[in-house]
Amino acid sequence: AALIVSPSQVAAFRLSRHFLLRRGPRSALASVVRDVCGVQAQVMSAARIALWARIAGLADEDIDRALEADRSLVRTWAVRGTVHILASEDLPLYIAVIKETIHRTFEAWLVRQGLHVSQIRALNEAIVEALSRGPCTRDEIVRHAGKSFPVKIRKWLASGWGGLLRPVCFEGRVCFGPSRGREVTFVRREQWLPDWRDIPYGEAGADLLRRYLRAYGPASLSDFSAWSGVPAKAATTFHDRLSSEVASVSIDGRMGLLLREDLDALRRARLDTPGVRLLPNFDGYLLGHRSKEHLVDSALYKQVYRKAGWISPVVLVDGRVAGVWSHARKGRTLQVRIDPFRRMSADVRRLVTDEAR
After folding, report:
1. Comparing C-alpha atoms, which of 203, 214, 191, 235 is closest to residue 96?
2. Sequence-separated contacts (24+) of 324-330 with Cβ below 8 Å
């Protein structure tokens, strides 16, 4: 029989797994990133706030050091084909899944746009060769790798949305390198992160689903597909390999999957005191499930999940969105504006103010 739990228990469980009830220590930065299955990072300032929301006393220097000095974190295109910060030791696992799913889908889309597979493969080789001289910006890659390709390909290669840099990153051959002022650079993965272990696709997929359920469960395979970008058929295959480890959970009559090892933790999960966080644009906690009913009322949905895939910074209270926020510089200070969806209690207002400070 399925375990029956309340939405409040589920919220407490997920918040705990995302370090949004109690922040993790600075020393555990890479572990936190691993446990939450990566941090979306196409907007790097948002990624920094997402990490700050989960780690006590975190400073920008901690993130820069982890990305560039000790390289315990890596930035690259990952789940959903979007830029993420991952724990470096997990990159082989993500790449094993992405190469067989998202990469193939994206390559097929490029072909429909008029490119030939041979052109894509040749460009990948040219990019890797250009990076043999060391980290390169997009413009440098275009100059060195794109010179023998048509103008259309050079423009796509220079595009800030990733364009033709994605396929070679999906293959795990290239990743983001050290920042050069405001510009990002790219590097050959084997030079930047030489430790590597190829992981079989099926094994990697089952492990990715396992990690997802640990962070976002209870959840359905449809939720996993929406979060990961993995097709439904592949998600089912991963589940089949993992079926003995998974149990069913009922939340107000809706069924979800959870790792059996986490059932006791879900039973015990409670929201004892108000949990408040200011989450940034594109925070992963807001992207873990296909339906967003557990996060925001349908009448307020478009204030959070906006046009063109833009997701607002939100005030999270006990696992639900209680408002949105923004900031603006005023001289030497930073003004944080909170727009609550409804009246907040004095305790919640105090906690929101603490977070803003």
Report:
1. 203
2. 325/278, 325/356
